[in-house]
Specification:
Four copies of one chain form a homotetramer. With 336 residues, chain A is of the alpha/beta class. Chain A is 30% helix and 20% strand. Chain A is built from twelve helices and 13 strands. In chain A, the strands form two sheets. Chain A has a seven-stranded mixed β-sheet. The first copy, chain A, has a six-stranded parallel β-sheet with strand order 2-1-3-4-6-5, sandwiched between helices. The radius of gyration of chain A is 19 Å and the shape is globular. Chain A starts with a strand and ends with a helix. The relative contact order of chain A is 0.15. Chains in contact: A-B, A-C, A-D, B-C, B-D, C-D. Chains A and C meet through helix 8 of A and helix 8 of C.
């Protein structure tokens, strides 16, 4: 039973981190902190989550006294100093922000000057399916962005085939966070659907880092729903491939992955709502020879809190499924 | 570890029953049957639920061979014969239909001739908080309707104070079931909100049975959302009561109830989404002395599948919270 | 062709006022002002409305130079001084705020000290169907609130029969205005439904002013949709009435009203979306003798901008339907 | 004042056709027919539309006796014979189905054997902005599909630059029609978003017909909303072009078009809800040189009924804007 703190538990991703840890069979939630709402119980701020702990102001020493590991769910820039303090005090950390995902150059080009670049070297990019081994041994894991998670998982098995890819991605509003803005006002979202951040969305940096292609087109769109993200990916292979090869590529990449579902038809985001699954369907368009990949996740789960716990499980030497699935035949149910 | 079958697992409530049992720490899901979709895996029909079992045609002997208890999620009329066959074969049954909720007269007046009235005597109305003891010893529990669950729980602590009550109730669309009809067509629901079944909704019969008042006004409305039900209840007390008495009545009724949350403000249905909680807020309107009670549930959970498992837990001698909550300090987490 | 200014045209109700005037066959939109967004074209702030005029800062002299009448869509408190300046300069004004709806005592009890109480005497409450004659001769019309419009129209034909009424009302989010707050954040609204302002909602004051009953229970709820408002009204008559009398009461009140639809079944808010209609269905509940009235409007139309133009038409001596309906056989189509 | 019949006025597109004609300043709606709902008034079937005419069974002679022109809103296959009968009787027809959009080969390959191929020669594809002159003189106009309308309008100014294009398109549910199916069930749509008809959607045929490119990738997705369609289009030019050329191409194509808005930023579908506008934003992605075009329409308006009336206006020698916009300075307001 490892003791875990969640830093930034008032936001959507942080609150879900806390809820997952709270219900996790082998983790103990010992502290929740928040920049807003400190003094309130988490279950009063987010009634869907039955976590009665009180949100505290962040204090690195207090957190270190009560926890062996931390999930940090702060915005980029705010996360780095907190992560540094916790590492210094011996905690293992999964950081959900962008602060440790990228090489320094890319980070500073897409975001801002980096205040703790000394930690970048040891940070492991937390795309579990790709970096499982490094994650298991890491002190610091940088949890991927939601768009990159779906897009990279969908494209990796075929990305070597092409020089460029197009990712037309769509996300629910929880990805935009709890801040009340024009963008998140109900009236601007309901009965609406629009592209945003075309060319400029920072998650592009992670695609550039992880995908072995020269040119990436990435256009996010905002869906009028709560949780869910779909990446529709288009790739023109440099040589002809057939359905058998396509299938083999995805099977060999993912057949044994506990959180990847290779779907026989294009998935809807509702299929994976409130789950840590990434559902992927790939096909070759006959008329063009183009490879189409549709990849669906819940942006708060596999795109944030779920993958963070999946990584934390690995860092603590546990079955990565613990706390994330619990049906018969898997650890959460059978182990105890 | 008791073995459980879910009959009618292709519908919304049945599928959730199967999912809850699948993840339940002390129940084993051994069979799922369905009138439609037989031959398909449950997780292919309802991808949100990670249950890989294959839906079978119903066969009482096969079910009896593999299960000690059953959750039956058939429509009224179709449920009774199946329940009878399972009881005959020695299973304990929670029936989610209306077939065993009412006295014969009321049932036949609101529904249709009863084909298994001989079982009505032993059936226990499964409003857990009211009939916990009888449920624990029952062979057959009739799980309450969604509207009655929220309304009766909200009104019971004060119903003795008045001769009549008004229940203005609103439910999400999952309560209407999987059948594709004009009523459930997306375009008729989205950006819409309307009363329906005014005067004629059959759930009125359960309110009449359970509430000790002479006159009941009950008007359901359809909300443009998936899961969630709110009952706004109005009651003019025969004598003046004050806030202290009101609070004491609810505290004494529910303070120790694991699935009732006495809320300091009117709850939203999102507060209890995907949970088995009933959130209740009661207040006395100063200008009129009227008692207002707002009671929110997830119609698929506390209004159907969640309460069914809560009842099944009791029938099997287990902690009623098992499989329904799992946080630290409660049985699902600590017990094993 | 009368010249009309819209003050506060950046808000939801003000923008719709501008759009209706822009398309009105006998009104000319000559000025639009706004506290925010000044300098932008209205059609860029609200692309749904094809109004290319540029939003200006409010300047009473400039408005008076260009317009004969004004629709003022400011929040309460901010509206009164603007209204006073425009009246002083000879304009006729429909004010959509609460500033001139109530007697001074009621206003100051529900809102704040009144800065222009000298104008209250001549202000006419703009519930068109009730005060049509006074509106026609008025310089200043106080447009009713959205909840009172639906509720009072629904109850007036039967309000003399009872001492108290219950109004369980539900509104879409546009009623909450353009401000980005926790309450209007998409995630707090979607898949949610909750009561708010129980006992304290200020629209209660208008119900108390207009309805001849002693006790009023009024509970607003927030619907997860854009435009639409339903009031479900409950009234226990002091004497028995039958369906014939009920029908006669509504027929004699509304049979000739151009914007009231007496509906054969409970209306949904979608039935009146983007229209100025109020759809009303009344019935007597057999089991209780209680009168149930369901009244649906579009909160931005009949609940705000539509009724404001309806009133302005009357003040200017025009057919009240102009600009609000345009089908064959009505003025908007046939007149020119 | 031309007399117009709407055939198939019980469906979403047909009902809107009837409503637009009803409010049109120079058209008279003289007949509405429907395969379902005959005998009911249109305003009872679609209460949003204030059209009191009664839906009749289709009878070609009766229609011909009362109307000079018809809008036919039947499904493909059912439309052709009705169109043939009406043409025979001297009416001018806009057909909203696919029956006359395509060359025979393409039609029979994507749809079914054609029963009235003799009419294909004279049918004009009703993409107004492209075929305005032919439409003006036509007896029979084949109104384009919703996806092709948005996609082709977005791509035409640049389609000569490339050999292939990708169209990632998203539509609201009204595009799927009134039939109650699993696909249109509220629960399968809300909080969901999914691709459908990948490779197989029949609207691809219109893209192939109209766009001068060799390879087209076209993937429709279903949005959880009522009305609205966005096409995100990707095109890799064969030679480098710059922002100036891009702008000139769109300006020269569309600067004078009354229903095309060249937008400074990617449009949302809400921007054009309930309007006949197509809002287009084009940009060159710096990193790749790729041209991105985002094109938004209301699928029921510019994607169906609105464009049909736009075409009918031209066929009858009227200003094409009549009945579709009505603000100051345009024909609908000033002309009479």
């Amino acid at each position: 039973m490892a003791r875990v703190a969640v830093i930034g538990a008032a936001g959507f991703a942080g609150a879900l981190c806390a809820d997952i840890v709270w219900r996790h069979p082998k983790l103990e939630l010992t502290a929740v902190t928040a920049r807003s709402d400190a003094g309130a119980r988490l279950c009063d701020v987010h009634p869907r989550y039955d976590v009665p702990l009180t949100l505290a102001e962040f204090d690195a020493d207090a957190v270190a006294a009560s926890a062996d590991a931390a999930l940090v769910a702060y915005p980029h820039g705010a996360a780095a100093p907190v992560v540094a303090q916790l590492l210094e005090r011996g905690l293992r950390v999964v950081d959900l922000s962008a602060d440790f995902r990228l090489p320094r150059d890319a980070y500073e080009s897409y975001y801002q000057p980096h205040e703790h670049a000394e930690l970048l070297n040891e940070a492991v990019y937390g795309l579990t399916e790709r970096y499982r081994d490094q994650i298991a041994g890491a002190r610091l894991v940088a949890n991927p962005g939601c768009y990159p998670t779906a897009s990279i998982l969908g494209l990796l098995p075929v990305a070597d085939l092409a020089d460029d890819v197009i990712v037309d991605a769509k996300s629910g509003v929880s990805g935009a966070g709890r801040a009340a803005t024009d963008k998140t006002h109900f009236i601007n979202v309901v009965e609406n659907f629009s592209p945003y951040g075309v060319e400029s969305h920072r998650h592009r940096a992670e695609l550039e880092m992880e995908l072995p292609v020269e040119r990436i087109t990435f256009t996010p769109h905002l869906l009028p729903l709560d949780q869910g993200l779909l990446a529709s990916c288009y790739l023109q292979p440099n040589r002809e491939i057939d359905a058998i090869e396509l299938r083999e590529r995805f099977d060999s990449a993912y057949a044994d992955e506990p959180f990847i579902r290779l779907a026989g038809a294009p998935p809807g985001v509702r299929d994976v709502r409130d789950t840590n699954f990434c559902a992927i369907h790939a096909t070759i368009e006959q008329a063009t020879g183009r490879v189409l990949v549709f990849s669906a996740i819940d942006n708060l789960w596999k795109g944030a809190a779920g993958q963070a716990v999946q990584n934390l499980n690995l860092m603590l030497g546990m079955d990565e499924r613990l706390g994330l699935v619990g049906g018969q035949g898997v650890a959460g149910k059978v182990a105890p």
